[in-house]
Design a protein that fits this description.
Blueprint: E1 7-10, H1 15-25, E2 30-31, H2 38-42, H3 46-54, E3 61-67, H4 71-85, E4 89-93, H5 123-130, E5 141-145, H6 160-178, E6 185-187, H7 200-208, E7 213-215, E8 231-232, H8 239-249
Parallel strand pairs: 1-3, 1-8, 2-3, 3-4, 4-5, 6-7
Helix pairs in contact: 1-4, 6-7
The structure holds zinc ion (ZN).
Zinc ion is lined by residues 67-68, 146, 150, 189.
């Protein structure tokens, strides 16, 4: 089966560039949350695949994800999505980096990103986002765990207990701090170097923690539900070329 649908992965993005992307998407794609299309991941079929992406009557679906709970999302992308486009999106939260108001904010300067100086949101900002609704009264932003400390799981080697802790505790922390239903998708930290059918121990840990699927940080035609591919989007990405390419690749 082909990858389920295009999933875009943003980090920090200039507001005007994001507007250009959303202008192009508007009227052509319908942004959805992963839990709304969970059936596809549980049992991918051609029928569901065509409903998601190739239906003649409905707009093809797309998922917009923003990683790392950056303050940039809160002060720029969030209000553009909410106030200007009414577009659903998903944020992926490394729970160990979220501060409480009054304490110094943390930076996204984890391993492999040591020199970065991007500030990260506080719990009260994420709580604010978690309550936002779209014009139909549905949740606007889906919130997914993105591990505790953003260490790529490959680096734990055989220490599957630590992987389990990262997977389970990050979910618990989100539910506790935000009073949201249990997330059923996870976002793998780092993710580079993953192959879709390896890491059985990690897949098992995700399954054991009742996740339906997990997002990876790269695009690939090979996938399974614990290794769902995403397109990495930067300021220089041409959205129309990318998505028309996606369309040509499939089926
Ligand atoms: Zn990340």
């Amino acid at each position: 089966m082909p990858p389920p649908l295009p999933i875009l992965m943003y980090h920090k993005i200039d507001g005007d560039i994001l507007r250009k992307h959303l202008d192009w998407l508007r009227g052509k794609f319908l942004p959805v949350h992963l839990y709304e299309i969970k059936e596809y991941f549980i049992q991918p079929t051609w029928k569901i695949y065509h409903e998601l992406y190739h239906s003649k009557d409905l707009l093809p679906k797309i998922v917009l994800t923003f990683d790392d709970a950056l303050l940039d999302f809160y002060i720029s992308s969030y209000s553009i999505l909410k106030d200007e486009y009414d577009f659903k999106a998903t944020i992926c939260v490394p729970t160990g980096f979220i501060s409480n108001p009054g304490n110094p904010r943390k930076l996204d300067n984890w391993e492999n990103n040591e020199h970065s100086t991007n500030l990260i949101m506080t719990w009260s900002e994420i709580r604010d986002i978690s309550k936002a609704k779209n014009e139909l009264g549905e949740p606007l932003i889906e919130i997914l765990p993105h591990s505790i400390n953003h260490v790529p799981f490959d680096s734990y080697g055989e220490d599957i207990k630590e992987v389990q802790r990262q997977i389970q505790e990050s979910k618990k922390t989100l539910v506790l701090n935000l009073s949201i239903p249990e997330p059923i998708f996870f976002c793998l930290p780092g993710g580079a170097g993953w192959k879709f059918d390896e890491h059985e121990g990690i897949n098992h840990a995700l399954d054991k923690a009742n996740y339906i699927g997990a997002l990876r940080a790269e695009y690939s035609n090979e996938w399974n539900r614990y290794c769902i591919p995403r397109y990495s989007i930067s300021s220089s990405t041409c959205i129309s070329t990318l998505l028309m390419g996606y369309q040509r690749n499939e089926v």
